[in-house]
TrEMBL record:
Residues 225-320 form the Peptidase M20 dimerisation domain. Belongs to the peptidase M20 family. This is Peptidase M20 dimerisation domain-containing protein. It comes from the Eukaryota. PANTHER family: METALLOPEPTIDASE, PUTATIVE (AFU_ORTHOLOGUE AFUA_6G09600)-RELATED, PEPTIDASE M20 FAMILY MEMBER. Keywords: Hydrolase. Residues 454-491 are annotated as: Disordered. SUPFAM superfamilies: Bacterial exopeptidase dimerisation domain (SSF55031), Zn-dependent exopeptidases (SSF53187). GO terms for molecular function: hydrolase activity. It holds the Pfam family Peptidase_M20.
Length: 491
């Protein structure tokens, strides 16, 4: 992650590093590269502090307070530019004072979103110094890193706000409850997308190599639904199944038959999933229960496929239960809409990614995937794009960005794994990518290539380099070529 000092944890706003960076970013003068590295060290410390204090959807009180304090005291955003929405969410408008541009540019307000909430899961990174301190809640999807990236963007944009035309707005959306029940729609209902011309977001993706990007136009992430099937039979003794109606046996036939839907009822060109994920029934080994409950999820990419899945599920459940003399209650609850990227904005993300990372590192990859995101609703309000940034890398001993040799293994765990940890090496590139994307979409320049090298953060630190122990050169690479920087000082 190109930092020349080991990031501090826990976050201490009175520490020398935090205070010096906060003071340095308060003015618009160019940051030296060591100072830029210090900024990313502090952002890593911020990320780890948030990681240690996870909060579930609409309960992100500490997270909200931490973000607000950082926005005002660290990024120096005026308090009047920050408002609370959707209980714990934040809308931040960074505005300029330069001459307005009038109607010459169609894009004046660009919104960028980061999700805030943690999962109701127990983290198993027991050796991690910044592991979750909240039992049963953990940042196992990387939202802590998404927030740190957006704080970094706030710092870099606010310090150049005087260069923004007065009719241009950079809007930062800190969204609660992405993991459920969904914070995007409440934020939209409270006006977070009013006046927005384009909207963007990213998600870390541990199965994609660090320094790579996946993006596509059209469907990018799926439409989920959750179902419950309660099968009602007639209980009895396990030694006399002939006088019972066994819901366990019925459920086995239902589970198998449901797997025929995608392979036999959905067109092979389409993507879909039907997964039974829980089975609950019975209490005693020699007793056939009266009833049994199945739950699970379906995924699809369009309404027509979902209609086929739901209809076939209802038919299969009802007919199999009838055949065995049982009955069933079936319910299904659709959730977030499909994430569908707009063509122009997806192309802009792809082109910028290729310019910063290299053509070979930006692709459609395995998209669309059937994971779900309520970022989809922001895309209903304004054109935009959502994309994935890779976090996978080989284990390297002694990296300052990680603190121990097990971190790469953690970072390579998929999201929602109990051993997952966000790869901090994503943060520098994510922040710099956001800056360059804003510049392109708003048709302005905030930082020269010397101030913020193209492709900065595109490469992970190497053993023996500045990212490891503070010695050796720092390199920023991209499609525009390597930029060799001066030797970073030791702390």
């Amino acid at each position: 992650m190109f930092c020349h000092r080991v990031p501090e944890f826990p976050l201490d706003k009175d520490s020398e590093l935090f205070a010096s960076v906060a003071a340095r970013v308060a003015d618009a003068r160019a940051l030296s590269l060591p100072e830029l590295h210090d900024l990313f060290s502090v952002l890593t410390s911020i990320r780890r502090d948030i990681h240690a204090h996870p909060e579930p959807g609409f309960e992100e009180a500490r997270t909200h307070a931490t973000l607000r304090r950082l926005l005002t005291s660290f990024a120096h955003v005026p308090d009047a530019a920050i408002r609370t929405v959707a209980k714990t969410g934040l809308v931040v408008d960074i505005t300029g004072a330069a001459e307005p541009r009038g109607d010459a540019h169609k894009v004046r307000t660009v919104a960028i979103r980061a999700d805030m909430d943690a999962l109701r899961m127990t983290e198993k990174n027991l050796a991690l110094p910044y592991r979750s301190t909240h039992q049963g809640v953990a940042h196992l999807c990387g939202h802590d890193g998404h927030m740190a990236s957006l704080i970094g963007l706030a710092v870099l944009v606010q310090r150049r706000a005087a260069q923004l035309p007065s009719d241009v707005v950079v809007r930062l959306l800190f969204q609660p409850a992405e993991e459920g029940p969904g914070g995007a729609l409440p934020m939209i209902a409270e006006g977070c997308m009013a006046g927005v011309d384009e909207v963007y977001g990213y998600h870390n993706w541990p199965s994609v190599p660090l320094g790579h990007m996946w993006v596509t136009e059209g469907p990018m992430m799926g439409h989920p639904a959750e179902f419950t099937i309660k099968i009602k039979g007639r209980g009895g003794h396990g030694s006399q199944p002939q006088v019972a109606v066994d819901p366990v046996l019925v459920s086995a036939h239902v589970i198998i038959a449901l797997q025929s839907i995608v392979s036999r009822s959905v067109h092979p060109r389409e993507q879909a999933v039907v997964s039974v994920t829980t089975v609950h029934g019975g209490e005693v080994a020699n007793v056939i229960p009266d009833e049994l409950t199945l739950t699970g999820t379906t995924r699809d990419l369009n309404a027509e496929v979902y209609a086929v899945i739901e209809a076939r599920m209802r038919t299969i459940v009802a007919s199999i239960c009838e055949a065995f003399g049982a009955s069933a209650e079936f319910s299904i609850r659709p959730s977030y809409a499909v994430v569908e990227n707009h063509a122009e904005q997806a192309a802009a993300v792809r082109a910028l990614g290729a310019r910063l990372l290299g053509e070979e590192r930006v692709s459609k990859g395995d998209l669309p995937i059937l994971g779900a995101e309520d970022f989809s609703y922001f895309l209903h309000e304004a054109p935009g794009a959502f994309f994935l940034l890779g976090g996978k890398e080989a284990a390297v001993q002694g990296l300052a960005a990680y603190g121990n040799g097990q971190a790469a293994e953690r970072s390579n765990c998929m999201c929602h794994n109990t051993a997952f940890d966000f790869n901090d090496n994503i943060i520098p590139f994510a922040v710099c990518f956001w800056v360059r994307l804003l510049e392109e979409r708003l048709a302005l320049r905030l930082y020269t290539e010397e101030e913020l090298p193209m492709g900065y953060g595109a490469e992970p630190p190497q053993p023996g380099g500045a990212g490891a122990d503070g010695s050796g050169p720092v390199r920023a690479t991209g499609a525009r070529g390597d930029v060799q920087h001066k030797k970073a000082r030791k702390s």
